[in-house]
Amino acid sequence: MATVDLIGLNKSVDGHVILDHIDLRIEKGEFVAVVGPSGCGKSTLLRLIAGLDEPTGGSILINHQCMNGVPPAKRDIAMVFQHYALYPHMTVFDNMAYGLKMRGVKQSEILQRVAAVATMLHLSELLKRKPSMLSGGQRQRVAMGRAIVRAPAVFLFDEPLSNLDATLRTKMRHEIKKMHSQLKTTCLYVTHDQTEAMTMADKMVVLNNGKIEQEGRPRDIYQYPATLFVAGFIGQYPMNLIEGTIDKGAQFVNTAHGVSLPVPKGKRSLLDGEKVLVGIRPEHLYAVEKPSKRSFSVKVEFIDDLGADKLLQVVTVLNGSPLLIRVLSDKALPSYPLEVEMDLTKATLFGQQSGERLGGWNGA
Amino acid sequence: MKKNPLITVLLHALIWLFIAVLFLPLYLALVTASHLGSDMMQAPLPYLPGNAFVDNLTVVLTKGIPATGGEPILSMLWSSFIMAFLIAGGKVFFSLLGAFALVYFEFPMKKLAFASILLTMMLPVEVRIVPTFQIIAWFGWVNTYAGLSLPLMASATATFLFRQCFKTIPSALVDAAKIDGAGPVRFFIDILLPLAKPQMAALLIIMFVYGWNQYLWPLVITTDPSKATIVMGIGYLAGVADQIPQWHYLMMVACIALLPPSLVILVFQRWFVKGLIE
User: Fold this and answer.
1) CA angle B199, B203, B208 (to 5 degrees)
2) Cα A160 from Cα A180, distance rounded (Å)
3) CB of A82 within 8 Å of any CB in chain B?
């Protein structure tokens, strides 16, 4: 177990900035997921911590010790690669034992440690096979076994599940989670799949264009996205964004859907006529029987029935702007025109220009 | 698609014709090797095997022929084998190291280094034979196996082949080895060499045949008959002045000279094909 601290970490290649002043603290035994679109620098971040690349600026501390310039083998880390990177000519046993052998661990201890990890990952029967004779899921487990057997202070995962099919991915997700709860090793898990990040992480870090957009508990990031980018990136379906203007006296938000909302308490006071966006997730819009002051009419364009719930693609009657609404499948929908209301306590107010969260209606 | 039986027959006939054309010289060599020298001096030349095969074989293997310096060809076969083996082994060894440096290390003027290696591909042995001879003579390596093999050990082709082979090895494997704590030498021995095995086998075979067939260089660098190679022996037999070439011995030696490379190919055939297509 170890802490990992990144202080003002910069990385640029040929003048092109990949990571821009990353500050991050990872506590002992914490499972941190770094999530972001491809090209946001999340893999580079991992390679810097692993020591496979050297940062342009800033420092990396593992257990409060500066690791800049320290070769990967001496950092007490283990990495699980996206394409597993198993040695194709070695058996499963040799793959797992290689790192120990390089560290001069005694043969008897190697045998014992590999056997223990193999049992934990259900690999005991496969120890004599070569990677080419294994299925994708088995290879994935060998790659994890190779990391676990070394008993490092920090695990680094580089999109380890992206090569598996959906069913296997869910299963392996649980296995990694289980492993973490057993070993309590500090984990840094890089993924572009926000479901993985949401379900596994103690702390989630959203990375975009080499900068941390937001970090925090997955639940908080989902509910209180700090920026428009996070709002769009996190969540199975993107957040609905409704345009609005702050009225005179900064008392109300007049939305483009013709609903007037009270101005929430926020970080700063809002200006007259300021352009804002009201963010509301598809599941926080619901149909109501009777029109009210807070409701607005929409026209349903498509219905995606997903079994458990229905996803309605609607446009507002007033200005034809599109919205996504998620409702439980067994709930009957009132007839046209559908009256829709927002669960205001779940909504977020963003500035249109800055893209930053200005506040919410639930007091947070 | 259903095949027309006529086309099948025709295709097979073509294949057999092709094989026959390929094997005709070999057959004629064997026929010649089984006759007395005097039979080769008369028209028409025999086209069926004679009965002097064993006699001729005994003569070339044990007694030696005056035209080749009177040495039995066994010692020539041995010289050829040592030379071919050293050349093939040296080529594989040096090009592995060269390719390792080119693919996995950053150093100044790396592109220039690669370009100059490729440049040597354009220069055949014959072009650089005089300076090479001067250098080897200066080393005092005339009439040695080192002198025979060293100048032929550098191989741009093999370096290029290994470079391409190493480039196909995923970079994550390099990263994994780094994290596992393997240094460059360990990585080379534990990871790269096993992965390049098929290519090594293929090259070893091709280069063995190449080394075996060397003619001009051994001719230049050896004066001592004990270091003469089998290909030189064939040359001696064919090029005697003021004498009728002893075709029956010549062909016998040629047939024997064919055997070791063929054997090497037969033994390593499976690896050979694997190395070429991977």
Assistant:
1) 155
2) 15
3) yes
- According to DSSP, the β-strands at A31-35 and A186-191 are parallel
CB A84 within 8 A of CB A90: no
- For residues A100 and A160, is the Cβ–Cβ distance under 8 A? no
Per CB-CB distance under 8 Å, the chain A contacts of B186 are 102
Classify each residue of A310-337 as buried b or exposed e, where b means 16 or more C-beta atoms within 10 Å of its C-beta: bbbebebeeeeeebbbbbeeeeeeeeee
> How many inter-chain contacts (A to B, CB under 8 Å) are there?
57
Q: A241: which 2 tokens?
A: 């964004």
Q: Which two tokens stand for residue B223?
A: 């004066």
Cα torsion A283, A239, A198, A85: sign: positive
Above 70 in pLDDT, residue B217?
A: yes
Mode of pairing for the β-strands spanning A154-158 and A186-191: parallel
| Distance from C-alpha of A338 to C-alpha of A325, rounded to nearest angstrom | 11
What phi and psi values does residue A219 have, to the nearest 5 degrees?
-60, -45
Which residue from B178, B182, B186 is facing A52, i.e. has the nearest CB? B178
**pLDDT averaged over every residue in chain B:** 86
Q: Tell me the chain A residues in contact with residue B175 when contact means C-beta distances shorter than 8 Å.
A: 47, 50, 52, 72, 79, 81, 85
- Pick the residue from chain A with its C-alpha nearest to B180: A99
Coil/strand/helix, residue A36: coil
ipTM at complex level: 0.81
- Among A45-54, A174-183, A232-241, B1-10, the minimum mean pLDDT is found in B1-10
Give me the residue from B176, B181, B197 closest to A85, CB to CB. B176
Rounded Cα gap, residues A74 and A57, in angstroms: 21
In this structure, the number of other CB atoms found within 10 A of the CB of residue B82 comes to 16
CB A258 within 8 A of CB A334: no
Mean pLDDT of chain A, nearest integer: 87
| B168, B180, B187, B278: best to mutate for the A interface, most A CBs within 10 A | B180
pTM, two decimal places: 0.79
Q: Any bridge partners for residue A287, and if so which?
A: A340
Radius of gyration, alpha carbons of chain B: 24
Residue B16, pLDDT score: 96
pLDDT band at A363; cut points 50, 70, 90: low
Residue A232 has pLDDT above 70, yes or no: yes
Q: Which residues pair with A26 in a beta bridge?
A: A4
